[in-house]
From TrEMBL:
<keyword id="KW-0642">Proline metabolism</keyword>
<comment type="similarity">
    <text>Belongs to the proline oxidase family.</text>
</comment>
<dbReference type="GO" id="GO:0010133">
    <property type="term" value="P:L-proline catabolic process to L-glutamate"/>
</dbReference>
<keyword id="KW-0285">Flavoprotein</keyword>
<dbReference type="GO" id="GO:0005739">
    <property type="term" value="C:mitochondrion"/>
</dbReference>
<dbReference type="GO" id="GO:0071949">
    <property type="term" value="F:FAD binding"/>
</dbReference>
<dbReference type="InterPro" id="IPR029041">
    <property type="entry name" value="FAD-linked_oxidoreductase-like"/>
</dbReference>
<keyword id="KW-0560">Oxidoreductase</keyword>
<keyword id="KW-0274">FAD</keyword>
<protein>
    <recommendedName>
        <fullName>Proline dehydrogenase</fullName>
        <ecNumber>1.5.5.2</ecNumber>
    </recommendedName>
</protein>
<dbReference type="Pfam" id="PF01619">
    <property type="entry name" value="Pro_dh"/>
</dbReference>
<dbReference type="GO" id="GO:0004657">
    <property type="term" value="F:proline dehydrogenase activity"/>
</dbReference>
<dbReference type="InterPro" id="IPR015659">
    <property type="entry name" value="Proline_oxidase"/>
</dbReference>
<feature type="domain" description="Proline dehydrogenase">
    <location>
        <begin position="169"/>
        <end position="436"/>
    </location>
</feature>
<dbReference type="InterPro" id="IPR002872">
    <property type="entry name" value="Proline_DH_dom"/>
</dbReference>
<comment type="function">
    <text>Converts proline to delta-1-pyrroline-5-carboxylate.</text>
</comment>
């Protein structure tokens, strides 16, 4: 095993291949793989989602349409539009059909359960809600594995995990507050939490009351059971980042899972953390975490995103009179993303399969940077670096990457209309800039539809 890792590391540092660099063209030429109906729906839905009033008042408009049109007609309209564009389906059969279509396009599934506890929502009482969510996550692990056609221990089965489905936001706020006051206190070290996960022994933390300690122990148990099941089923868990007032707690819990499940002997990384480039301290944290993983001999998995909570982060900072944690503008965020991307690609180059990276971006420049640097560093297309975009968005980039042989994942939520539509509206509100910035994709869709209607570009088989 050690010889195999050494060979992989040496191969990853083999340097650039011979010949000239040939950049990918994100010009919509790969749209020939999609049907005219799919392109028309995508254009309509993306234009609607770029309309600010629809996104801002989405939940109210949904309720109004149900009262005016009735649940059946309102649901049919949503299924034919937003739900059909962004959701894999409700039943296992519908999800499987969606994934088979993606695989036919050279794309892979990154399954997401649309469950979370909103920070401003009424706190849940008791553990039953979180235990139900645990069952849903376990089913998602099984579904994720069953959707991948390859057998054995292939590491290309991934799913998203949202910690606030298994642990309350109130607890995460308490843990965050303590970590900011106490720094790297041994009372809340990843090693101590990992030991509590493994042993199941009751963990007592001094600043939590009896009920909170009980909930912490139950939350650790839930996280541990999901990771254990995922590792047994060869599914890698990509943990979502959320708001800065709970992110330190999420990172602590991910670090505890990493201590247990990201050792090389486990074949990791099985648990990845998400890093948001729109926060000012992200490059510093990513540098520190990558070095800590190397120092402790752990594998390290990263999903790199720009970030989705810009407006709320700035609003909270204003209300609390605290420093704004976000980058000053989009250009600064792009520079931060570029620096973090370069950092991780160099780590992958030097440490081979010990370090994994998902370039989760809809930005063409970032994807160009990643593909060019992979070529220069000799990182294989289907190796420890992959790409990620949302289902129903950025298909001109996803399809071009997939057809070129890169590992590309589409984040696919699934579930009933009642479960998923509120989730989609929240995601749309968080991703306003992405939706409003999808003008180029809309233009490419419009051009492709126009060519087909004028008979200038015959549709290739789906």
């Amino acid at each position: 095993m050690m010889l195999l890792r050494t060979c992989r590391a040496l191969c990853s540092r083999a340097g650039p291949p011979s010949g000239d660099w040939q950049p990918l063209h994100f010009d919509g030429s790969a749209f020939h793989l999609k049907s005219t109906a799919e392109l028309a729906r995508a254009l309509l839905v993306l234009r609607l989602c770029a309309w600010p009033p629809l996104v801002t008042h989405g939940l109210a408009l949904q309720a109004w349409s149900q009262r005016l049109l009735g649940s059946r007609l309102s649901g049919a309209i949503l299924r034919a539009s937003m739900y059909g564009q962004f959701v894999a389906g409700e039943t296992t059969e519908e999800v499987r059909t969606c994934v088979q279509q993606l695989q036919g396009l050279g794309l892979r599934p990154l399954v997401a359960v649309p469950i979370e506890e909103e920070p401003d929502s009424t706190p849940k009482t008791g553990e039953s809600w979180y235990e139900d969510n645990l069952s849903a996550m376990m089913r998602c692990v099984d579904l994720s594995r069953s959707l991948v056609e390859t057998s054995g221990t292939a590491g290309n089965s991934l799913m998203q995990l949202r910690v606030t489905a298994l642990a309350s936001t109130r607890l995460c706020k308490e843990l965050t507050s303590w970590t900011r006051r106490s720094g790297s206190s041994s009372e809340l070290s990843p090693e101590r939490l990992a030991e509590a996960m493994d042993s199941g022994q009751n963990l007592q933390v001094s600043f939590l009351n009896a009920e909170q300690n009980w909930h912490l122990q139950a939350s650790l148990s839930r996280l541990h059971r999901v990771a254990q099941h995922a590792q047994a089923r060869h599914v890698r868990l990509l943990v979502d980042a959320e708001y800065t007032f709970i992110n330190p707690a999420l990172s602590l819990l991910v670090a505890a899972l990493a201590v247990r499940w990201n050792s090389p002997r486990e074949g990791g990384p099985w648990v990845w953390n998400t890093y948001q480039a729109y926060l000012q301290d992200t490059h510093e944290r990513l540098t520190r975490d990558a070095e800590d993983a190397h120092r402790t001999g752990l594998t390290f998995g990263v999903k790199l995103v720009r970030g989705a909570y810009l407006e709320k982060e700035r609003m909270v900072a204003r209300l609390q009179g605290t420093k704004d944690p976000t980058q000053p503008d989009y250009e600064a965020t792009s520079r931060s993303y570029s620096r973090c991307l370069e950092l991780m690609l160099n780590h992958v180059n030097h440490r081979g399969s010990m370090y994994h990276l998902m370039v989760a971006s809809h930005n063409e420049e970032s994807v160009h940077q990643a593909t060019k640097r992979m070529w220069e560093l000799g990182i294989p297309l289907d190796g420890p670096v992959c790409f990620g975009q949302l289902l129903g968005m950025c298909d001109h980039v996803s399809l071009a990457l997939g057809q070129a042989g890169y590992a590309v994942y589409k984040s696919i939520p699934y579930g009933s209309l009642e479960e998923v539509i509120p989730y989609l509206i929240r995601r749309a509100q968080e991703n306003r800039s992405v939706l409003q910035g999808a003008r180029r994709e809309q233009s490419l869709l419009s051009q492709e539809l126009q060519r087909r209607l004028l008979g200038q570009s015959p549709r290739a088989p789906y």
